[in-house]
Amino acid sequence: MYLYLIQHGESKSEQEDPKRPLSEKGTRDVEKVASFVSSIEVESIFHSGKLRARQTAEIFAKHVKAGEGVSEKDGLAPLDDPAIWAERLKESDKNIMLVGHLPHLGKLASHLLCGNPEAQVVNFKMGGVVCLKKQEDKWAVEWMVVPEML
């Protein structure tokens, strides 16, 4: 099973737009990364419901193969407990893409990789993808792509 963790692209400030959509740079960065990883196949792309995460998920959905498409899912907000998704992932063997926010994604990755959500194992970048692979109930980092690489 592969799990793709994506931090939303750069968004406008709250003063600029309280809904915080992706900025022009954020959109460009996400398009670049999504195009680069276009060979990915996932069952579903889930996002937090916040506009910047939804827009990021929709851009990825244009480039990757997502059998069940894009949908909002609870447990992906910035301050949500990473144990929620860690538990859900125990039951799954499908490739999944999660689009969310910090600190949640960092805590989820740390929880999966070393059992300590506070360890800060992965340094996420806006618009970047971290691929984790599960084998026999153990997780490992497979690869990471960030906009600055492309």
How does this model look, in words?
With 150 residues, the chain is α/β, with parallel strands linked by helices. It has a single domain, classed as 3-Layer(aba) Sandwich (Rossmann fold), CATH 3.40.50.1240. It contains four helices and eight strands; from the N terminus they run E-H-E-E-H-E-E-H-E-H-E-E. The protein has helices at 24-36, 51-63, 82-90, 104-114; strands spanning 2-7, 41-42, 44-47, 65-66, 70-72, 96-100, 129-135, 138-145. The chain has a six-stranded mixed β-sheet, with helices on both faces. A two-stranded parallel ribbon has the order 2-4. A hairpin with a 2-residue loop joins strand 7 (129-135) and strand 8 (138-145). Helix 1 (24-36) runs parallel beside helix 2 and helix 3 (82-90) crosses helix 4 (104-114). The radius of gyration is 14 Å and the shape is globular. The two termini are 26 Å apart.
Write a brief structural summary.
Helices cover 31% and strands 25% of the residues. It has 150 residues and is an alpha/beta fold. The protein has a single domain, classed as Phosphoglycerate mutase-like (Rossmann fold, 3-Layer(aba) Sandwich).
Q: Could you give the count of β-strands?
A: 8
Integer average pLDDT: 97
Strand order of the largest sheet: 5-3-6-1-7-8
Q: Which stretches are low in confidence, meaning pLDDT under 50 for 5 or more residues running? A: none
Strand content: 15-25%
What is the first-to-last residue Cα distance?
26 Å
Which sheet architecture does the biggest sheet show?
Answer: 6 strands, mixed
CA-atom Rg in angstroms = 14 Å
**Helix/strand-derived class?**
alpha/beta
CATH architecture: 3-Layer(aba) Sandwich
Q: Specify the CATH homologous superfamily.
A: Phosphoglycerate mutase-like
User: Percentage of helical residues?
Assistant: 25-40%
CATH topology: Rossmann fold
What is the approximate shape?
Answer: globular
CATH class annotation: Alpha Beta
Query: What is the count of distinct domains?
Result: 1
Order of helices and strands: EHEEHEEHEHEE
